[in-house]
Design brief:
- The longest helix has 18 residues.
- Helix 2 packs antiparallel against helix 4.
- With 120 residues, the protein is mainly α.
- The chain is 60% helix and 0% strand.
- The termini are far apart.
- The protein has six helices and no strands.
Length: 120
């Protein structure tokens, strides 16, 4: 009898696991990995200037669209600042002008001194 109850309980748990929806991941959540991947096609431009690659602007626009909340934008800002400090030869003038070259207008300055906690 105990085995029958245990078996029924185990079946109920398995059924609940199959029927229950998976836990939701926050939509629009930004990670530094996402920022790095989105901006990787921009590295040559950020070092040397010239024409902005189409893939770079695609990544910039994708990241801009994904950063839909204040928390997302602050995370993206912190990730970009961290990555920028690790990129040798980065020209901050190219970085600050990149959104505009990709047809975007962002409401804060891109610089090493940007206070990401104030990004809205």
């Amino acid at each position: 009898m105990a085995n029958s109850v245990t078996l029924k309980l185990a079946c109920l748990v398995v059924l609940a696991m199959v029927v229950a929806p998976p836990p939701r991941v926050a939509e629009g959540a930004i990670s530094c990995g996402m920022v790095d991947t989105s901006l990787a096609p921009c590295l040559d431009y950020l070092r040397n200037g010239g024409q902005v690659p189409v893939l770079c602007c695609n990544g910039v626009r994708s990241l801009y669209g994904a950063a839909s909340t204040t928390a997302d934008r602050r995370t993206a800002c912190n990730c970009m600042k961290s990555a920028a400090g690790a990129i040798s030869g980065l020209n901050i003038n190219y970085a600050s002008g990149l959104p505009g070259k990709c047809g975007l207008n962002i409401p804060y300055e891109i610089s090493f001194s940007t206070d990401c906690s104030k990004v809205q």
